[in-house]
C-alpha cells in the first residue's frame, strides 16, 4: 500500500465522520436531553403519531399521556418524538 493510498483512506474516514457519525451523535444527545426534560403538562408527539398531554411522569421510564378526555395511555419515554410547548400549536 502506498502512502498516498493511506492518506486517501484517512481522508475518506474523516469526511464520513464529520458528515454522518458526528451529526447523528449530536441528534441523539439532543433527543436524550429532550426526553429528560419532559414535565407534566407538556404536549408530546410519539413516534406512532399520537399527540397527547403528559399527565404523569413515572420513575421507571414511562409517561402517562392523556390522548382524549379521560383516555390515558402509558408510553415509554424513548418513544416520544417531539415535545410541543403549551403555547405552540400542533403543526398540521
What does this entry show, briefly?
With 92 residues, this protein is of the alpha+beta class. It is 37% helix and 32% strand.
Characteristics:
92 residues; 1 helix; alpha+beta; single chain; 5 strands; 32% strand
- Write down the Rg: 20 Å
Q: Averaging pLDDT over every residue, what do you get?
A: 89
Order of helices and strands: HEEEEE
Helix-residue proportion: 25-40%
Number of strands: 5
The N- to C-terminal Cα distance equals 55 Å
* Count, helices: 1
Low-confidence stretches: none
Walk me through the structure.
The protein is α+β, with helices and mostly antiparallel strands. The chain contains one helix and five strands, in the order H-E-E-E-E-E. It has one helix at 3-36, and strands spanning 43-46, 51-57, 62-68, 71-76, 80-84. A five-stranded antiparallel beta sheet has the order 4-3-2-1-5, with helices on one face. Strand 1 and strand 2 form a beta hairpin. The chain is rod-shaped. The N and C termini lie far apart (55 Å).
What is the topology?
Elements: H1 3-36, E1 43-46, E2 51-57, E3 62-68, E4 71-76, E5 80-84
Antiparallel strand pairs: 1-2, 1-5, 2-3, 3-4
